[in-house]
Amino acid sequence: MKLKRTLASVIMLTVIVMLAGCGASKKTTENPDQNNASSDKPKVVNIGTQQMPNDEKIAIAKGFFEEELGVKVNIIEFQAGEIRNAMVAKSIDFALLGSSSATLGIANGMDAELIWIHEVLGNAERLVAKNNSDINSIKDLAGKKVATPFASTAHYSLLKALELNGISEKDVTLLDMQMPDIYAAWQRGDIDAAYAWEPTLSNLLKDGKTVISSKDLAANGVVTSNLEIVRKDFAKKYPDIVAKYIKALNKAVNLYNQNQAEAVKTIAKALNITEEEALKQTKGSIWLTAEQQLDPAYFGTSSKKGNLVGSLKDTADFLYKQKSLVSEPKLSTFEQAVNPSYIENALK
Asked: How confident is the model at residue 38 (pLDDT cuts 50, 70, 90)?
């Protein structure tokens, strides 16, 4: 994430053919944007993802996408930041992005829609300092080296933490690193602290302490989340696929809610970590069912968008003040990007 470099640089398949046909017909009537929807299926759906202990990881591991979509699924794993570039380049159809990264991309004209909240971040992202760093509070960061992936939710949270505590960015040496590089630099002793997410976070905590978490920041109005986005042209052509993509993710959330042991076991195997560790990591965030996502606190409905719109606009305003955005963001940009219709259709 390169907040300072400005960015120029977002989710859905076959249950029964007849039911799909009926669903498509309804959507065409209810959503003018879907008038050009194709009854054909894509040969392959390209899904961009990241190493995170969430619903998407379960859906991938359990084969839910193939089951729901009924077409070949190509899973491509990225580091934060790179995945947005892949979406802009149209090399993927769906992408998992942090809310800050999605905000930057959309504010800069990325042609994508927001269709799902993977998780609302809490203790799953934290600012951690090495035990021997003499850092016990945000104010102790002055003069220290702090790493995080720029343009990520972690970067946004770090900058907001500095701002809330009256610390200038200029007083801290901020380093743009991806999670594998952060862990390597931590082990070498090249950095004093890092704002990181799981599973790297747990490795840092073996020799570190929590200074502040995204849960702490959320209590102060700084809410972050991981979101799913889809290319607009893909969603316009294949609205049924997008709704089925949502069904696959909702199936994963329901598995987590109804059989947590099985869900945790699946994540542990996918991430090559212990089940105990996987359970701890998943408890660091809030997972929402499709019904819950339509609550006014999140997506809201097609007739009345929810608080997600305002949250993204607030993030964009901050990024603009940080000079990470060239143009002042408009609320209408995010009103158009947040699309609850696919969740609504997935629930029919």
From this structure: low
